[in-house]
Fold this protein.
Amino acid sequence: MHPYEDAPPSDSPRILALFRRMIVKFGVARSVIAMTLTSLAMSLAGSALLRTLLGSGIEQKDVVVAALLPMLIAPPLAWMGINLISRLDRSERAQQHLATHDSLTELCNRREFFQRMARVHERAHREGRPAWLLMLDLDRFKAINDECGHLAGDRAIRQVADLCRAETRPGDVLGRYGGDEFALVVVGLDREAAGSIAARLRQRITATPLILSDGRRLALSTSIGLAALVSPDSPGLTLDRSIGQADDALREAKRLGRDRICVAAGERCEPLAA
């Protein structure tokens, strides 16, 4: 189930658009809007009560009716305001989620991944911590689509995404880089530890066949390129250069026969021992 499938559709009532304009233009907090609606309801009720008490010929039934007005008016108006604000919150969260996440895998999309990677890169540089970039590509993905259909291809991508997600730690950045390619940023690990994560990812994917709708089991494998994102040995290493090295390492893993890991080492790419 999509986490925001209960959000209102794009043709939500116009009042939601009005609330959104108020918040964007004036920076009005949602809680303030709710309190304003409640205060307005209480003011209306209080005005009605004063008019009744100050009027001529006050009768007991009028006082009773006026006293009941706050309880009759305030709760519905307050509920309506809070309900509208809640719907607005869900709508905005859904729109934000769709703008930053891939709809098939629920991972960061390419744009969001680059933004998060840039922040991690800057923080790791500032704190003097090593960081590594893993580029992962599903082997022979075109053959899966051609022989088993695009639905099977989608299931394969989702399965690989779930297996990658299972290996991520708090603070890591995982995203769908494009097509059948994924990218993972890990921080605070040396080359050996980053290589171990890459090896576990490859083993997980190889050991988990894709079960097709007709019951067939389809073996999957992946090629991984690993490169330093922040390294004390390369203080001048740029983000673009790191991405290029990881991509070169991934291509080398493909060239050497797939289902393997290659590590960028300066201008060279070395296979990682299984």
In short: The longest helix spans residues 60-100. Confidence is low (pLDDT under 50) at residues 1-11. The chain is about 55% helix and 15% strand. The chain has two domains: 14-100, 110-271.
